[in-house]
Design goal:
- The chain is α/β, with parallel strands linked by helices.
- It is about 45% helix and about 15% strand.
- The protein has a 7-stranded parallel beta sheet with strand order 5-6-4-7-8-3-11, with helices on both faces.
- α1 packs antiparallel against α2 (about 45-50), α8 packs across α24 and α22 (about 580-595) packs across α23 (about 600-620).
Length: about 750
């Protein structure tokens, strides 16, 4: 052990090199946090948080702990107390929250029944009794940071938003602090261990724009559709000089919105000094598709793909792979492609690891692909977060979709305005209504009520047809009714992703060859799955879902739109699940009023306005299920961060994962788990082999022994494996029910 000369107070110790002086760590962290916070004008805030975050290490108790001569020590409360005493509210409170929380996570301001001590309790701790007393040396080695400027322009005139904005600012500051702390600590240990850290060094946005231009040059520009795409691309790019803020991009399926939105984002970011493009996508399958498109255009090393099923970077360079894996921690990459769950839950999170990336969202172009999929019950908090990014954090937001949700706040047109929606949204596409007509490829009509026998007959009448239903039970029953025919397939989430992929490839081959191909599927096929059927049958659902289903019909525009039918039907036996009933009701209403063209821009806007009105008319908190904004308003400076993070869930269900040993790769990963010390990469490798099942069904499988955890003594219950492989059918996936499974009353689903 070798200790540095000079100060006798240290932040970190190592057997491989000099210990890190505490003053050095505080100054380094403060400098980094200041740089991070400067992106939204919070320089002094970041510096103060960094200088005070580890102040509690100025104690003999902590210094003994570094030498393994004492128990763990609370070293974060002291700095929070000094901040609370030294600065004016609300800055003092924001700093106290961040400093106290930089290890365990943001707590509630007050209250009980939480896993972390509320901030108020931490601030009331007594030095020498509840925690170690600070040695006076800190005042000799450090100067207390000056009072940070409060950023008086931060708050809007809407007083109901002040609590939300304070919470948002605190999370952003927390992000700056924890990333700076991690980065300096990482650098110290890397130096003592004689290794380098693969961070940064990504291509500049200007270079990526040049690569994109080269990519456009190599694309086939022939044909009417490609001509239209080029016209859209040019018109959208012409608007890149517009001031940062809120935008919409309303481009129909087939209009090339993926690369068009990327080109706009690069032009806009370079023009206005923004730092990165964050592509937020609702479904993992589309994340993977879009990330692949971006890599082809920009190069592997420029694109960070971040979601629960991410396995490995395709880059051939180990250094590039390492950079991208490290960038997942804080999104320090030029192009980030992620899920809505990852993006929005991070904006409302409390844990350091989840919040660490937030400061890198500021100063970005955020593109929300399929923006209509924002969950209704969290719509207001999601919109408030997006609005806050554009209002105070130097970002631009683009709502990118063919079916634009009516989330605009229009003071000049109250009847078309959503209270608390996004203000001043500017459309990028040239004449969306005309574009809709140009790219219209299908005719949508309601075919009335259909029993299962009628539905089966309708499927058999067509050589190639896609039938989409609302739940897995119905899909299974219908599949069994026609499975005796050649070329019948089922696609549901009871099949793991590794199983669905070859099935989809077979479906595409048969469609292209003109062979019989009848597919029974749930809505998962609407999530960016690239298939092209001459006819689609769709169980009643929301109009946005019907529009997604229509995107699987005459997708390549080879047939007459009036002959390419999307038939919406109701089923007396299989009513929409409770969580979809309101969507289906609104969709039914619009289909009735706009029966000639229910997918027109006017019909889509009417659908969303009706849906939002119905939601709030039946429940005052219908668009903010947990009253998150109101709770933050009432709490003022005592934000219940832990409670908010717990309640904000983009996907609320009790599903449990089951690992399916589908192929040899899965079996090898399972075997490796039994002996591996680091399980993170193996866990990611197994993601495509997972089927999620309801908790009650999972318990039955577990109790019967059909599902057992891998090495429970060492790994606990986190890796449940299907050991009774006879329950996984090679055609339909996981199946364990009795022969009367088609009865809705008796099914576990």
């Amino acid at each position: 052990m070798s200790e540095s000369t000079g100060s006798s107070y240290f932040a970190h110790s190592s057997d491989l090199g000099p210990w890190q002086p505490l003053r050095v760590h505080l100054e380094n962290t403060a400098g980094l946090a200041r740089t991070f916070a400067a992106k939204f004008g919070g320089d002094d805030l970041g510096f103060a948080a960094g200088m005070l975050h580890d102040l509690g290490k100025y104690s003999s108790a902590f210094q003994k702990r570094l030498k393994n001569e004492g128990p763990p020590v609370d070293h974060s409360t002291a700095g929070a107390q000094i901040a609370a005493e030294s600065f004016s509210p609300p800055i003092a409170r924001a700093l106290a929250f961040c400093i106290a929380a930089h290890h365990a996570g943001l707590p509630n301001g007050r209250g009980e029944n939480v896993s972390r001590s509320p901030l108020e309790r931490r601030l009331n701790k007594e030095a020498g009794k509840d925690m170690p007393a600070l040695d006076s040396a800190w005042q000799l080695e450090l100067s207390l940071p000056k009072e940070p400027d409060f950023l008086s322009s931060l708050y809007t005139k809407d007083k109901t938003r002040i609590g939300f904005q304070f919470a948002f600012l605190t999370r952003m500051l927390f992000s700056c602090l924890v990333d700076a702390d991690f980065r300096d600590t990482e650098a110290y240990f890397a130096e003592t261990e004689g290794r380098s850290v693969a961070r940064g060094g990504f291509p500049a946005l200007a270079e990526l724009r040049e690569r994109l231009e080269d990519h456009f040059e190599g694309l086939d520009g022939k044909g009417t559709v490609n001509t239209r795409r080029k016209e859209i691309l040019a018109a959208v790019r012409d608007r890149a000089a517009a001031a940062p803020g809120n935008f919409s991009l309303t481009v129909p399926t087939g209009g090339g919105k993926t690369l068009t939105s990327l080109a706009f984002a690069l032009d806009h970011a370079i023009r206005h000094g923004l730092r990165r493009i964050i592509y937020v996508i609702p479904f993992t399958s589309i994340v993977e598709q879009n990330a692949a498109v971006f890599r082809e255009a920009l190069g592997d090393e420029a694109v960070l793909e971040h979601h629960s099923q991410y396995v490995d970077s395709p880059s051939e360079s180990p250094h590039a792979r390492d950079k991208l894996f490290l960038a997942m921690e804080n999104w320090d990459a030029p192009i980030v492609v992620t899920t809505g769950v990852q993006f929005f839950e991070s904006l409302f999170a409390a844990r350091p690891a989840r919040c660490r990336k937030l400061h890198n969202i500021s100063g970005s172009v955020v593109i929300l692909d399929e923006a209509q999929t924002l969950p209704l019950e969290l719509l207001r908090p999601c919109l408030a977060a997006l609005d806050e990014l554009t209002l105070n954090y130097n970002s631009s937001v683009v709502l990118c979709t063919a079916t634009q949700p009516a989330v605009h706040e229009r003071t000049e047109d109250p009847e078309r305005s959503l209270r608390g929606g996004l203000p001043d949204v500017r459309e990028l596409a040239p004449d969306p209504e005309k574009l809709y007509e140009v790219f219209r490829r299908v005719q949508v009509r309601h075919s009335g009520e259909m029993e299962d026998d009628d539905l089966a007959e309708a499927c058999l009448e067509q050589e190639q047809v896609l039938c989409i239903v609302n739940n897995r039970r119905h899909a299974r029953a219908l599949y069994e009714a026609i499975s005796y025919e050649d070329g019948v397939f089922q696609l549901t989430t009871l099949m793991c992703a590794k199983h669905r992929t070859p099935v989809l490839n077979k479906i595409r081959r048969r469609l292209k060859a003109g062979e019989p191909c009848r597919v029974i599927a749930t809505s998962l096929v609407e999530a960016g799955v690239d298939v092209d059927f001459p006819r689609v049958l769709r169980a009643e659902a929301g109009l946005d879902s019907i529009a997604q289903a229509a995107g699987r019909c005459n997708r390549e525009g080879k047939h007459d739109p009036d002959q390419s039918q999307v038939l919406v039907f109701s089923s007396p036996k299989w009513q929409p699940p409770a969580e979809l009933a309101q969507f289906a009701q609104a969709g039914r209403e619009i289909l009735r009023h706009y029966h000639e063209d229910p997918l027109s821009p006017e019909a889509i806007e009417s659908y969303f306005r009706l849906l939002y009105w119905q939601r709030e008319n039946t429940d005052p908190n219908g668009l903010d299920k947990h009253a998150l904004i109101e709770r933050m308003h009432r709490a003022r400076l005592d934000v219940p961060f832990e409670d908010i993070a717990r309640d904000f869930r983009m996907i609320e269900d009790s599903q449990k994962p089951v690992i399916i040993p589908w192929d040899d790769d899965a079996r090898r990963a399972v075997e490796s788990l039994r002996f591996a010390e680091e399980v993170g990469r193996l866990a990611r490798q197994l993601q495509p082999y997972i089927v999620n099942v309801p908790e009650r069904a999972f318990q039955q499988l577990r109790e019967s022994g059909a599902v057992q955890p891998i090495d429970p003594e060492r790994l606990g219950e986190q890796f449940p494996l299907l050991v009774n492989e006879s329950l996984y059918d090679k055609k339909v996936g996981l199946c364990w029910e009795e022969p009367d499974y088609i009865s809705p009353e008796k099914s576990l689903w």
